[in-house]
Specification:
The protein is of the alpha+beta class. The protein contains 31 helices and 17 strands.
Length: 827
């Protein structure tokens, strides 16, 4: 064995650890000052496994592979900086950039750093942009090896700051975490010795081109663990037995939209017949599971290394081009970093091959067997990677190893091997509770979709506890507007239960005033209704309204608007609205999907018109009956829209709002104290509304008092308007994850204490769907999230466990059903 090295990697399929130990067993401990001499291997008791491990870490290898790794990571980090500054799917809101969504947007009021980094401030927008520019520049200088160590530190610090300071952007993207780890490791590695500006500048100073083996080993170990645990994460009944969430992702009707122009009609029909099928979903699920579990080990074995690289390219290309459109640069990261598993001198060999290209002959036995067992792709088994982990014998003198290097490598790999397992020791299903799941390489193993969370505040000074004998609402202790928002279900609207004068709040149309003929003394015709309206307005305001219009249904309302636009010479808009009005006549005969399409188009029309409040179109649409856009049909002659410009504040852009100071209560508004909670002092303005959804951020104040029209026996409650305080992205993530919801509840309690001088109880309701299951409550609705503690190593009682262990069969059997939350991607 003198002058030559033994094979460093076994050609058999034994595990990585076993192969490394076997290699250590083939070496005699040698001096760091001179070449090693081959002697029979000493027993473990004599040489010691730890010493052999250190010897292996100190073996000299070519620095070319690490240089290529440095270049790939530096390039990717520059691309990450670029991606932050351009609109993409990761920004959640269309047309915005990730920087605006997570760091610099005008609607960002606070940030959610990782718990250990709460002391980090969110920098002002100018400095965030400067930080991203510095990241892009440092990534490029790291890639070319200029001031390498400084560049690596800068990349790690800038990317690390962006990673930890806003966890809602990064906690569900494992490749961001991988990039943080890799950039940290590169700081300590001699990755600038080859193919770098630094090496070129030091050419006359005998700059070494070799490196110790430890950087190669730790990077291989890190990547192997990441892929392996991504496979372990998929070992669930949902993934293996139900092909979920893959079946829902592939059922997206627009999944082939980017390629429709590239395929013929017959080709497109063939492909679109395969991709949404259950069989293809199972194929993707099972191959993804097997790939993640095996690819790291296949890359370690010389016989399967080329085959594994082919699989790596196919895997990442499929993810990027077909399945996921929100994984950023992960496919590039995956393919380029996997090259570290090749022999350390592979870039040099590639250079020689490019000068004299020649395809080596395969091992025909392996070639044929692989092609048969795994069609086409398996033929790559015919090429076996050559062994060249260490340098030739005359250059095999071990390199100096830092005092703590071996301990660091061992501790790092043990840490990365143990941390993803911690959720198995915590009671409950971590996929739902998210306890112990962070940094565990989930890699799209499950899909969680939440309905928007609701936060409720209990302050007994304003709303005393039931049974206390005190009035329920003390408006003198309330610092907000004296307004009571009364929820109702539009489809259950009963006009006889409403007062004569009704204030209604709806998305797009804002707050409107209606006269309800069914809520007062018997009104027999329109003339009597108009006379009654004039009488009520004279009694309250000493004047008559500016305009009174009968509300006769959505279709008739649109026809009226079309007529007004045609008279104004706006023929194109009149034709469009007239067409919608005609379609509404057949609404009852349409299929549900077609009917919803018409309603969506009408809503889009109103949304467009709402940006021009003075427009004739918007003036006509405001006379639509209450909740007409929710499918509610108004009784002919029973409702009249009232417009009084002194009472209604016309917003420069957006729906009108009632002037609270000018509004006057009277018997006609019928604000009668309900049994169980009499109202103290002056009566409030009562506003009726349905589900506003995300539009509550513009239409409602930060905190409101609500009660229910449908359930008059239920007490009122204080509701925190989260959409007004949160970006869409933060609202989505806070609704999905109990720990985020708890942190946000504590913020709400702090703001309340600052305003009122007392700390309230903050409860929450949020329902989460895991992999298509029906939505289930995530947290205990009675728990005070502002005061509960969070345990990171045991189950938290305020977090509910997953109730349905399997996805209901009826959901899986319905081929035309996509669970709530699985939104279609844009064509």
């Amino acid at each position: 064995m003198r002058g030559r090295r033994a094979e460093t990697e076994s050609g058999s399929a034994r595990g990585w650890v076993g192969s490394q130990v076997a290699q250590f067993g083939m070496r005699k401990k040698s001096s760091d000052r001179g070449p090693r001499r081959s002697v029979p291997s000493a027993p473990a008791s004599q040489a010691g496994y730890w010493q052999r491990f250190k010897d292996r870490l100190a073996d000299p290898v070519s620095g070319a592979s690490l240089a290529a790794f440095r270049f790939a990571v530096g390039l990717v980090m520059s691309l990450e900086a670029y991606a932050l500054c351009r609109p993409n799917v990761a920004a959640i809101s269309a047309g915005t950039t990730p920087l605006q969504t997570y760091y610099t947007g005008a609607d960002i009021t606070f940030h959610l750093p990782y718990p250990a980094f709460g002391w980090l401030p969110l920098l002002p927008p100018f400095w965030i942009h400067a930080l991203v520019a510095l990241l892009g520049l440092a990534g490029m200088t790291m890639a070319i090896g200029f001031c390498y160590r400084l560049s690596a530190i800068t990349v790690f610090l800038t990317w690390g700051y962006l990673w930890v300071v806003e966890s809602t952007r990064t906690y569900w993207q494992s490749h961001y975490y991988l990039e943080v780890l890799l950039t940290f490791l590169l700081i300590w590695m001699p990755a600038g010795r080859c193919y770098s500006i630094d090496a070129w500048l030091a050419a006359g100073r005998n700059f070494p081109r070799t490196i110790p083996f430890w950087p190669i080993l730790i990077l291989r170990g890190q990547l192997l663990l990441a892929y392996f645990y991504a496979g372990v994460a998929k070992f669930s009944a949902d993934w293996v037995m139900d092909a979920a969430p893959m079946r829902w992702v592939l059922a997206d009707p627009n999944i082939m939209a980017p390629y429709r122009s590239l395929l013929g009609s017959s080709q497109l029909a063939f492909v679109e017949g395969i991709i949404p099928s259950n069989g293809f979903a199972y194929f993707i699920s099972w191959t993804g599971l097997l790939f993640d579990l095996a690819v790291g080990f296949l890359l370690l074995i010389r016989r399967t290394r080329v085959f594994a690289l082919v699989l790596m390219i196919i895997f990442h290309a499929t993810n990027h081009l077909l399945i996921f459109d929100d994984i950023g640069w992960f496919p590039l990261v995956g393919v380029t970093t996997a090259l570290i598993f090749l022999n350390p001198d592979w870039p040099e060999k590639l250079g020689r091959w490019l000068r004299h290209p020649k395809v080596p002959k395969p091992d025909w036995g392996w070639f044929a067997a692989g092609a048969v067992l795994i069609p086409v792709v398996g033929a790559a088994l015919g090429w076996k990677s050559k062994s060249s982990d260490t340098l030739p014998g005359e250059k095999k003198q071990r390199m100096p190893l830092g005092r703590w290097t071996a301990a660091f490598v061992a501790a790092w790999l043990v840490w990365q091997g143990v941390m993803p397992l911690r959720h198995y020791w915590i009671a409950g299903d971590g996929r739902f509770t998210y306890e112990g799941m962070s940094f565990s390489w989930r890699l799209k193993a499950e899909a969680r979709h939440a309905r928007g969370h609701q936060l409720f505040i209990r302050d007994t000074s304003i709303l005393p506890s039931p049974g206390s004998g005190r009035d329920r609402i003390d408006w003198e202790a309330w610092h907000g507007e004296r307004v009571l928002y009364r929820r109702l279900t539009p489809s259950r609207l009963d006009l006889a239960q409403l007062p004569e004068i009704v204030v209604v709040l709806e998305p797009l149309l804002g707050e409107r005033i209606f006269f309800n003929a069914a809520g007062g003394p018997g009104i027999r015709n329109e003339q009597e209704a108009r006379e009654r309206i004039s009488q009520l307005w004279q009694e309250s305001y000493g004047r008559v309204p500016d305009l009174v219009l009968g509300a006769n249904g959505l279709g008739q309302g649109l026809e009226s608007v079309a007529s007004q636009l045609a008279a104004a010479g706006r023929d194109a808009e009149a034709k469009r609205i007239g067409s919608l009005a005609a379609q509404l006549r057949q609404l009852d005969e349409m299929k549900p999907a077609e009917a919803m399409g018409v309603i969506r188009e009408i809503r889009a029309l109103i949304k467009e018109a709402a940006t021009r409040p003075a427009d004739a179109m918007m003036a006509g649409l405001r006379a639509l009956p209450p909740f007409a856009l929710e499918g509610v049909q108004a009784s002919a002659g029973s409702l009249f829209y009232i417009e009084d410009r002194s009472l209604q504040e016309m917003q420069p852009a957006g729906p009108p709002r009632l002037n609270r100071k000018q509004w006057k209560e009277s018997p006609s508004t019928r604000v009668i104290p309900r049994p169980g909670y009499p109202i103290r002092t002056a009566a409030p303005l009562v506003v009726y509304l349905g589900d506003l959804g995300i539009t509550s951020r513009e239409l409602l104040p930060q905190v409101c008092i609500f009660d229910s029209q449908d359930s008059p026996g239920l007490p009122p409650y204080i509701w925190w308007n989260s959409p007004r305080d949160l970006t869409i992205s933060k609202g989505m993530h806070i609704s999905n994850q109990a720990f985020f919801l708890r942190r946000y509840a504590r913020r709400v309690a702090d703001l309340w204490q600052k305003e009122y001088g007392r700390r309230p109880v903050v409860t929450a309701a949020t329902a989460v769907s895991l992999n298509g299951r029906p939505p289930q409550m995530l947290v205990d609705p009675e728990a005070d999230l502002a005061s509960v503690s969070a345990s990171w190593f045991t189950h938290n009682g305020w977090i509910k466990d997953l109730e349905l262990r399997r996805i209901p069969r009826e959901i899986l059997a319905d081929k035309n059903r996509r669970p709530a939350g699985f939104a279609e991607r844009m064509p």
